[in-house]
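dumping this here before i forget
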Amino acid sequence: MRGLARGLRGPRHPGHTVPVADLGALSLPVGDDGVVIGEDAEGRPLMIGFHRSTPYDALLIGGLWTAQVLALRAAGTGARVAVETGRAQSWTGLAQAAGAGLDCVTLHDVGRVPPLGATVGSPVVVVRDCGMRPPRGRVVSSPWQSVLTLLPYLSPVAPRLLRDSTLVGVQRVSPQEAEQIGRILGLSPAESGALPTLADGVTLWCSGRERHWVMTNGTDAETGLLGAARRMD
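structure:
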């Protein structure tokens, strides 16, 4: 019995060795594989890697529905999600449903988010749903704590956030807003011109010079909780 408890011996192979000079070429992924944000035009899944060892700021100019889907999916990867919001009633159902009763999604009044103690083993995603003018506060990105700010439309603080964010998502906006966003992000005329015509659930995600048109479709569970994809709240 003691022998069986140790398990069966497998085949023996010589050890694997790597020259010291080649060690710098090796890298291992740290954190999760990312939060699936939807599919591109070819049907390939696209992801956001929120769990990082460096500060990470994302901005979504769009609807509450998309922000809530991202929050749910971030919680599904094992992150603690802290929602800073002035409309807690819009998030209560999600917070109660997420994590099967565990406090993986917590709600906080604007300006009242406590220190969250993010670590590699307990990463945090902060969702700032603070209206058109989210105040500067103590909630900032840091190692293993990413911040996603939701703006329903452009506002006086939008240009700063557009320039400072590593990742920007833009959903349907007015032609005037599309023109301003295009200038700041360096979009092509075709990209800017498409923004006022986007369907519900479609987002243009931009990071540096990268551009991805993404369709986010809710799962059955997400749709049952949040309803169908929509740009307006």
